[in-house]
Write a structure and sequence with these properties.
Layout lengths: L2 H15 L1 H8 L3 H9 L6 H11 L3 E4 L4 E4 H9 L7 H9 L9
Antiparallel strand pairs: 1-2
């Protein structure tokens, strides 16, 4: 998804849910969402990527789960690393660092 498409996705989400709700979902302030929408935020890439994860409806193939999962779930699992609580968590900890979806 291109930057413009992500921005349009953010605009639609804000129109549908409100800027405050979108900000809570993305984990940023309402002011950040407002500035991005006005084109005044200096580097919105991180937040637009997060918007795609939350609202994009993109599915990615997960080698650990062996099926397609929402991009948001993929990102959530990556953020929760490292974990060693059960066999699946251990596989995620071993696999996710080399996954092409992982941010550099």
């Amino acid at each position: 998804m291109s930057g413009n498409e992500k921005l349009e996705l953010l605009e639609r989400a804000a129109a549908e849910h409100g800027q405050a709700a979108v900000a809570r979902e993305l984990g940023c302030s309402e002011a950040t969402v407002c500035l991005i929408l006005k084109g005044r935020y200096s580097n919105p890439a991180r937040w637009l990527e997060r918007c795609e994860e939350v609202y994009g409806g993109v599915l990615v193939e997960c080698p650990v789960f062996g099926c397609e999962i929402p991009l948001g779930r993929c990102a959530e699992e990556r953020r929760r690393l490292p974990r060693r609580t059960n066999p699946v968590a251990r596989r995620l900890t071993e696999t996710c660092p080399s996954c092409p979806r992982r941010r550099k």
